[in-house]
Amino acid sequence: MKEVKTNAMRMLDRLKIEYCVNTYEVSESHMDGKTVAEKVGVDVSQVYKTLVLENAKHAHFVFIIPVNASLDMKSAAQAVNEKKLQLMPLDDLKKVTGYVRGGCSPIGMKRQFPTIIDRQVEEIDAIYVSGGARGTQIKIDVAHLIRTTRAKVKKVTHDEHN
């Protein structure tokens, strides 16, 4: 069976960046990050989720954080010099990013949005992010992900796991 390439994969191919694709079965219900890590067979600390937030004027910002952490909304807003941010309505996700919930990759969105990766990423060499479709994870070198998404690394999660 031929692998279906997502926008994220096509972009990485074009940039000649190495990555590994891990696919897994998905159900209709939303799957949490811990379950995704188990299905891919990796430590949950290596799996990151992509959140898209917006300001009052509907400017969009991308945050890549560990699946076992939660976004500190105040730190997130400060990281992109905004007073306040909120999660973008799910109904707008595909229209704005080109991706669906559970398959939103920080790589290959319709437009390049300001992107922040949580500082915990400094403790690992490679991370797993959505490959651009539900049931698809991409393992990518942290440095390549930062370069590809033009991300800044800042602390934007709560300290609940320490």
Automatic annotation (TrEMBL):
UniProt keyword Metal-binding, yes or no: no
CDD domains reported in the protein's UniProt record: YbaK_deacylase (cd00002)
NCBIfam families listed in its UniProt record: YbaK_EbsC
Name of protein: Cys-tRNA(Pro)/Cys-tRNA(Cys) deacylase
EC supergroup of this enzyme: lyase
Pfam (any one): tRNA_edit
Family to which the UniProt record says this protein belongs: Belongs to the prolyl-tRNA editing family. YbaK/EbsC subfamily.
MF-aspect GO terms: aminoacyl-tRNA deacylase activity; lyase activity
Transmembrane segments: none
Keywords, sorted A to Z: Lyase, Protein biosynthesis
Keyword Hydrolase assigned: no
UniProt EC number: 4.2.-.-
Gene this protein is translated from: ybaK
GO BP, sorted A to Z: translation
Domain YbaK/aminoacyl-tRNA synthetase-associated: start-end pairs: 34-147
